[in-house]
Write a structure and sequence with these properties.
232 residues, alpha+beta, 4 strands
Length: 232
């Protein structure tokens, strides 16, 4: 569930096609949504249940661009207003190259929505058995480890989707996106936290890692399984 009262729920085409909605967005929000447009249009064609949410203010713990869930719908939430870290992930990247990385980040978030919408959020690949703790077994420490591992697997899947999208749509620039993502994931304050997806990212050093499956989500299935095994 989303924790805060939200400013607006905008279906995909509204922010950029409605004058009223566009006037409600900052230049920064508009720039991010324009860069995200190809991925969001693709998600719309797949009929993924996504709303775009813009928060009027940002709290100290708010991620500037993130996917949340509410009921049966996915919520792509922009928390950029008053957020000094809104573009921290891009601060070392030239302005002209940031759109490509925002597009890859959007594909990452859509990967989360695809998993949620298909009812496999935190589910293992077919045939896998998780030996981890059952949260109901009364051991909070083991339950916390399992929850972290579940989240890390989802982040690994989403990172692979971002790379698969790039391989399909920006193959000549794959190396750039991969280098940025690999460097980002290498900077882990604590090993094996929810965003320590190195077990997955290292499996796709070039675009040839991905085949020609029907969708980017299908295209990452083999590598995601391999990462799950390597991460255990």
């Amino acid at each position: 569930m989303l924790k805060r009262l939200l400013f607006a729920s905008l279906y995909w085409l509204s922010p950029l096609s409605s004058a009223h909605a566009a006037a409600s967005l900052t230049d920064q929000e508009t720039r991010w949504l324009r860069a995200a447009a190809p991925v969001l249009a693709y998600a719309q064609r797949l009929k993924l249940p996504i709303d775009i949410i813009v928060q009027p203010t940002s709290g100290p713990a708010d991620v500037p661009f993130a996917m949340g869930f509410d009921g049966q719908r996915c919520k792509l939430v922009l928390s950029m207003r008053g957020n000094p870290d809104a573009e921290a992930l891009l601060e070392k990247v030239p302005e002209a190259e940031r759109g490509l990385l925002i597009e890859a980040m959007t594909a990452h978030e859509i990967g989360h929505c695809w998993r949620y919408a298909h009812g496999v959020w935190h589910a293992l690949p077919a045939g896998f058995v998780d030996p981890g703790a059952d949260p109901a077994d009364g051991n909070p420490a083991l339950a916390a480890v399992k929850a972290m591992r579940d989240s890390r697997r989802e982040e690994g899947f989403a990172d692979l989707v971002a790379l698969a999208w790039t391989a399909r749509h920006h193959r000549q620039r794959y190396e750039q996106v991969y280098a940025w993502l690999a460097a980002l994931r290498a900077e882990q304050p604590v090993a094996r936290n929810a965003h320590d997806t190195r077990a997955w990212v290292r499996l796709a050093p070039d675009a040839a890692a991905f085949g020609q499956a029907a969708t980017p989500f299908d295209d990452v299935a083999v590598l995601w399984r391999q990462g799950v095994l390597a991460d255990d």
